[in-house]
Amino acid sequence: MSTTRMLRRPTATLTAAIALTLGLAACGSSEPEAAPAAAPTQETTTGATEDMTEEMTTAPEVPATVMPMGTGDPFADARTAAQHMPETAATLAAGFAAALEIPGETDSAAADLRAGLTALLQEHVYLAGIGVATAYTAGADSPEFEAAAATLDANSVALADAVGSLAGDEQREAFLALWREHIGYFVDYAVAVKGGDDAARDAALASLDGYTGQAGAFFEEVSGGALPAADVAMSLEMHVTTLTAAIDDLAAGSPEAYDSLQAAAAHVGEGAAVIAGGLASAAGLEGDPNDDAATLRAQLTAGLQEHVYLAGLAVFTAYTSDGGTDSGAFEAAAATLDANSVALSEAVGSLAGAEQGEAFLALWREHIGYFVDYAGAVAAGDDEAAAAALTELDGYRGEAGAFFEEISGGELPADAVAEGLAMHVQTLGGAIDSLAGALVDG
Questions:
Q1: 3-state secondary structure 102-167
Q2: Mean pLDDT for the stretch of residues 298-313
């Protein structure tokens, strides 16, 4: 990669993000349309035609199974890539639960609720962090920040839809207004901290403090008392504390920012379990959102979705930091991404044994390396290296499929796992393409 990275206006028309709804466990199953290729220029000389023919003949071929798909909007595309992971988590959880006879249900209505809230709330934190990072890099009045904010708002709408599906349209609108308001306070806080305006910073914190009480009262009402206002408010106070800490680190350019953001995301996962319990009880949903099988699904949802967002943040950092992948900022982002990999391997090891956990970690780190290779090749305009990285990722799908079939005793067929990983490569590859198109100064 070049050592100089500058943001520039996205080259493709921005598109709306795909909204998550709790009624669909396979929330990432819709495939994004690939950006149309530019029409070739008509050559008028024989020499030019021969050159073009030779180039087409020697251009490396990318396996169709891993052809990246994106829209040109890096933020919406990152969300699309992340939305595929809850489906994968549900599949893996079901296979492990069956193979190991884990008590509970991975596919009950209550389990769906917890997994869906886990994905949505974690996504809120990462999209907020990406939005702040974009504002600090490109400016709060930039088209890039506008696109990032639009994707964050799509998450807000999805959360409101989830609440409305349980509590009705009127409560949906009330929640959406309240939720958007608290995001505005976080934006105010981020601007104040970056600008060194202590008075505005304190005002934003005071507004966020008031929000926690309002939200607590809201959830107590819609849950019929199953979610006490004081308990919800306390959880939201921790949300404010952890996310503002991440914003502080982003404003300071601290390498701790990625770990701080990960900590903020982990906290809302805990909150999702509590909220799901209260709402499931109030709505009389079938199943237990906190039984062992449902918990496994929620944990895999959080770990796999986090992988995508941390990978996206790492690429964002490489594309916007002096030094690219050799920068200290990228090393910090990569370290946080690797911590997620270790956590996922420990989850696998707890189910299949320490030896299999180590095998998974080696395989998982390898596939991350291929994505890094792809990102570097795209930024450098090296089609051959990009195709080679995608070919390696295509091979990884088969290895991972065989691995999961073996450790699940056949409950997770290799072909099915490999097919799911094809979508992972296609969507994350598309997000990387869009990041390069929007963030790398050509």
A1: CCCCCCCHHHHHHHHHHHHHHHHHHHHHHHHHHHHHHCCCCHHHHHHHHHHHHHHHHHHHHHHHHH
A2: 98
